[in-house]
Amino acid sequence: MAFLEDPHCPQCQCAVPLRELWKKAPKDKGLFLQGTNGIKCPGCGVKLRVLQMRVVIATSLLFAIAMGVAAYIGDYDRAHNIHQSEASGLLISGAAMSVLFYFQWRFAYRFASVRILRDGEGASFPLTETEPFEVPNEAPLDLALLSKVAARWNTDKEDSAVWICPKCKEDNPGEFDRCWKCQTERTGTSN
To answer: Parallel, antiparallel, or unpaired: how do β-strands 163-164 and 171-172 relate?
Structure first.
């Protein structure tokens, strides 16, 4: 992977642009993506999880470099008897932190990596409004079954009366055509 290049999909090797995700996804303390985030590969459509470990490492290194530079400037000032006012010291520290936050804001997403979302693993997808969470193995809606359920729901009170299974003598709700315990049909035949 080239330095500061978009990560690539492990399945199709297509570049995955994370800049938009980094702009829209909620962030923790303004630095890192909050929670588990995902993105769809623009090439093959596979759902990918965004991993931020390299972002954390890069940010930590930038912070350590900024602190090292500040310490060096302080030592240099003391060694050469340069007396700065407190305001100028704060201004320099503020400028260093601003540069740090600018680089983190501008390039953090370039350090992220991606992997294919595993079965049963949930992730939020901030870039797709219609699909906020990964729901693995979701079955399509069966309209015929839905209409059957709706028809049974609207049955007469006679059908909703409790009935006793002729085989196991268990009480069953009137909506059931089969005994919940032994699967015997309401008419008395067993499968």
So the answer is: antiparallel
**What is the b/e burial string over 143-177, where b = at least 16 CB atoms within 10 angstroms of the residue's CB?**
eeeeeeeeeeeeeeeeeeeebebeeeeeebebeee
How many other C-beta atoms lie within 10 A of the C-beta of residue 179? Answer: 21
* Cβ neighbours, 10 Å, residue 138: 7
pTM for this entry = 0.51
Token pair of 140, please?
């399509």
Determine phi and psi for 39, rounding to 5 degrees: -150, 150
29 contacts: CB under 8 Å, gap ≥ 6? none
- Residue of 38, 39, 61, 65 whose CA lies nearest to 108: 61
Residue 36 contacts residue 49 (beta carbons within 8 Å): yes
| Predicted local confidence at residue 133, as pLDDT | 43
